[in-house]
Structures are given as structure tokens and as C-alpha cells.
Amino acid sequence: MKTTLPFPLNLRRGHNAEARACAHLQKQGLLLLARNYRSQHGEIDLIMQEQDALVFVEVRFRSNANFGTPAETVDARKQARLRATAEHYLQNTPKASKKACRFDIVAITGDAASGDFRWLRNVF
User: Domain ranges in the chain?
Assistant: First the structure.
């Protein structure tokens, strides 16, 4: 008999934070194009469209800010991986390559479902 392991708590929290971010951005008028887009360089949590612009969204969650805010965890190395993954997406999605692009961060601190929510636009 095969048993399945419970979904780890940290993955559940991350998924809940991404779902909250996606729902919030959709309420603001953004259109979801892709979720958890992967390339050999890394992953982009959400790829959305706002009017004529592509928005690459990194969702960061922290249960508390004792060791820094969620947005502070998007360092130069993470930004480089996000850029490389975005380039991969653009190369493989010809219609998208003609649009203006930006990188946003959604930073959630506290509870993934109801904690402090910050949408930082065009951060890098």
C-alpha cells in the first residue's frame, strides 16, 4: 500500500501566499498568463499582463520580519535568476517579446492568508 506524505507546511504557506498575491493582482486588473514558470535558470512565481506590459512577479513570504523583510530577500543573485528566466520566457513566447516588461515583488509578512501585504512595482 502506497502512502502519501502530507504537503510540507512551508510549501503550503508559499502556495497560499502565491494564491493570495495572484487573486489580489487579478482584482487590480492584471491578467494571469503563467504560474510557476520554470527554466534552467530558475522560476518566476507569476507572469501577468497589465494593459500592454508584461509583469514578472516574485512572491516572497516571511512569517515575521525579525531577520529582514520578504522583499529584502530578493538580492542581486535572485534578481539575475529572475531576469534570465524572464528572458527564457520572452524567447519562447514570441507575442510577449514585443511588450514592455517590469519586475514586481509581492511581500507578505505574518500569516500567508491575512498578513501584511505589500505590492512593490517595478522594483528592478
Answer: 9-120
Query: What are the tens digits of pLDDT across the range 15-41?
Result: 889 999 999 999 999 999 999 999 999
- In terms of DSSP H, where are the helices of 28-100? 76-92
| Pairwise CA distance, residues 108 & 101, whole Å | 23
What is the gyration radius of the CA atoms in the chain, in angstroms?
15
The H-or-E segment that residue 21 falls in is helix 9-27
Distance CA 18, CA 68 (A): 20
Query: Any idea which fold 9-120 has?
Result: Trna Endonuclease; Chain: A, domain 1 (3.40.1350)
Set of cell numbers at residue 53: 506590459
Q: How many CB atoms lie within 10 A of CB 91?
A: 11
Q: What is the overall mean pLDDT for the chain?
A: 91
- Cα separation, 101 vs 54, whole angstroms: 5
Helix (H, G, I), strand (E, B) or coil at 70: coil
